[in-house]
Write a structure and sequence with these properties.
globular, about 110 residues, about 5% helix, 6-stranded antiparallel beta sheet, 8 strands, mainly beta
Length: about 110
């Protein structure tokens, strides 16, 4: 990967849902789960103390998506494409939780 995250940023490879070949589905949901592929070193707090990253490369994570009530974006992550593969660059604080085992097909396509 050519992209190296800085400070408290991480790069996540999102899992893309597989849509049915038989039904036309208007799927406007954004990705909300993936695997961490790169992690920044951490950040220095105002107190001068260094805060290490609580998330590691290889973690399976769930992260927030668009607020459906107002349609306003409340998270600040953006897509990055490398060799035709989509990645998301975000702060580790956008992660809702970490899962120990890989996501199953049922979880991804639910």
């Amino acid at each position: 990967m050519k992209l190296k995250p800085m400070k408290d940023k991480i790069v996540v490879k999102p899992y893309i849902r597989k849509l049915s070949y038989f039904l036309i589905v208007n799927n406007q949901e954004r990705e909300n789960m993936g695997q961490v592929v790169a992690v920044g070193p951490g950040r220095t707090l105002q107190s001068g103390r260094f805060e290490e990253m609580p998330i590691k490369v290889g973690a399976y994570v769930r992260f927030g998506t668009m607020n459906k009530d107002t349609g306003e974006e409340y998270l600040k992550y953006f897509p990055y494409f490398e060799d035709g593969v989509k990645y998301l660059v975000m702060s580790w604080q956008d992660i809702c939780w970490e899962q120990e085992e890989p996501f199953t097909e049922e979880q991804i396509n639910a």
